[in-house]
């Protein structure tokens, strides 16, 4: 059974998942785990007598972060390689996992990729390798996202607490205020449309991770998974909570209140800049992404603001998250304890964290940052000086309870993408899409040797 599960994970890792952070250049070659730095290091090792830990990471400021760590440590040095962003790196890491060699000591992974690698016995449990020393630095939700069962398989770095980014000029023109509930969201969208205004958002088929977060907000628990349960996965993709969310968005699509364009395409960005969308339901990393794509310049400069996500029940608000990364220690690490020190220590010093959030590269999850006056009171330029961290993103990050990811998560994303497309094309209601999704994913899980609990 385990062999079939491993093969399933291998074949699904290349499928689309959450948006990866921006990439910088690098040769992408594999560094030799442990030992001396080799030609594949993208940084310069200054303390050449210290043991080396190899690291793959794609953040734009990875070299500066590694240099900060190396400068502060005499007992270990990091040899950093950019093996590509997101899927490009995962493909190379998967090749190394399958071959049993060629992996780095520490690898950067998004939270939803941890379980598919963990089921292949590719990652080290960090529970006894420094986790207790840094446990209080992060929220319970941050730790849950990097855990599989009782094991901790990643050191949290950044996250994507969600909010509703909106155009102040559109809201002012049509005399509306940020909706606090999903019912208000629909009512407000209808009012703007009736007055000749733009659609309110995009229900994008290519963003299944975002839609999954919306399911969690309504109390859905799409998956349960614990390695100790001997290959059992709980799958509830057609629960009443999931159907309510998909039916709600299907209704918005049918009424023409939201668009159906894929996000992160040039056409989508052009539409955002042109004011074709009144809101962008997204995460705390969005301002950096949008600015990098040219949003917020020229005619649409100074028009953006952010507000908390609309809720199903304002008396019981639920914070949700889209995206986020961690550093995981691989099973090919020559010295797991030393590698764990790097995983927990890289991007953990004040200089690196400050540089990361001030340049909108990451939204840090470290509590030292989230609680700091500088971070909370920061007047975000993209939002016209709004203290967005204090008002929206820090409360969301601290209230977030985490998600349960599974080894078949990438197949699930692919299957959900197909069902969202069916909704958008008018071929299925939300409830029908949920039933089809459940049938598809359950069948796949059983084919891979899992026992499914529905």
Brief account:
The chain is α/β, with parallel strands linked by helices. The protein has 19 helices and 12 strands.
CATH class of the largest domain: Alpha Beta
Major beta sheet summary: 7 strands, mixed
User: Which architecture name of the largest domain does CATH use?
Assistant: 3-Layer(aba) Sandwich
The CATH superfamily of the largest domain is Periplasmic binding protein-like II
Indicate the CATH topology of the largest domain.
D-Maltodextrin-Binding Protein, domain 2
State the share of residues found in helices, binned by percent. Answer: 40-55%
- Report how far the terminal alpha carbons are from each other: 19 Å
- The helix/strand class is alpha/beta
Low-confidence stretches: 1-38
Number of strands: 12
Strand content: 5-15%
> How many alpha or pi helices?
19
Mean pLDDT across all amino acids: 90
Radius of gyration based on Cα positions: 22 Å
- Shape designation: globular
Number of domains: 2
Keywords: Cell membrane, Lipoprotein, Membrane, Palmitate, Signal
InterPro entries: Bact_solute-bd_prot1, SBP
Pfam family, one: SBP_bac_1
Signal peptide: 1-20
């Amino acid at each position: 059974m385990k062999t079939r599960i491993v093969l399933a994970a291998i074949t699904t890792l290349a499928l689309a998942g959450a948006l990866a952070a921006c990439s910088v250049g690098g040769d992408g070659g594999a560094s030799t785990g442990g030992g001396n730095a080799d030609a594949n290091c993208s940084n310069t090792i200054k303390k050449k007598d210290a043991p080396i830990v190899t690291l793959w990471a794609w953040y734009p400021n990875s070299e500066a972060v590694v240099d900060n760590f190396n400068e502060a440590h005499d007992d270990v040095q990091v040899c950093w390689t950019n093996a590509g962003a997101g899927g490009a790196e995962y493909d190379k890491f998967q090749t190394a996992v399958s071959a049993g060699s060629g992996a780095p000591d520490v690898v950067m992974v998004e939270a939803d990729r941890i379980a598919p690698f963990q089921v292949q016995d590719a990652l080290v449990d960090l529970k006894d390798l420094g986790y207790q020393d840094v446990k209080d630095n992060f929220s319970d939700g941050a730790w849950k996202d990097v855990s599989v069962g009782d094991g901790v398989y990643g050191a949290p770095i950044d996250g994507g607490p969600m909010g509703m980014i909106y155009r102040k000029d559109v809201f002012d023109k049509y005399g509306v205020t940020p909706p606090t509930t999903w019912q208000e969201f629909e009512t407000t969208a209808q009012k703007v449309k009736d007055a000749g205004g733009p659609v309110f958002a995009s229900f994008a088929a290519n963003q299944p991770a975002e839609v999954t977060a919306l399911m969690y907000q309504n109390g859905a628990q799409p998956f349960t998974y614990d390695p100790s349960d001997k290959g059992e996965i709980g799958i509830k993709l057609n629960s009443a909570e999931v159907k309510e969310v998909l039916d709600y968005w299907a209704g918005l699509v049918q009424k023409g209140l939201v668009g159906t364009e894929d996000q992160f395409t040039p056409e989508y960005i052009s539409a955002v800049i042109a004011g074709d969308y009144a809101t962008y339901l997204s995460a705390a990393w969005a301002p950096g992404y949008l600015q990098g794509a040219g949003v917020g310049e020229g005619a649409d400069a100074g028009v953006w603001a952010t507000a908390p996500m609309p809720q199903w029940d304002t008396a019981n608000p639920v914070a949700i998250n889209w995206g986020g990364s961690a550093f995981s220690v691989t099973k090919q690490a020559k010295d797991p304890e030393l590698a764990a020190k790097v995983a927990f220590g890289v991007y953990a010093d004040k200089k690196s964290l400050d540089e990361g959030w001030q340049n909108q590269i990451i939204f840090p999850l470290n509590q030292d940052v989230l609680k700091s006056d500088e971070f909370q009171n920061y007047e975000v330029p993209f939002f016209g000086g709004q203290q967005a961290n204090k008002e929206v993103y820090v409360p969301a990050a601290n209230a977030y309870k985490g998600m349960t990811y599974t080894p078949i998560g990438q197949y699930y994303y692919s299957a959900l993408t197909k069902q969202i497309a069916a909704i958008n094309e008018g071929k299925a209601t939300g409830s029908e899409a949920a039933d089809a999704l459940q049938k598809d994913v359950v069948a796949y899980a059983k084919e891979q040797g899992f026992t499914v609990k529905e």
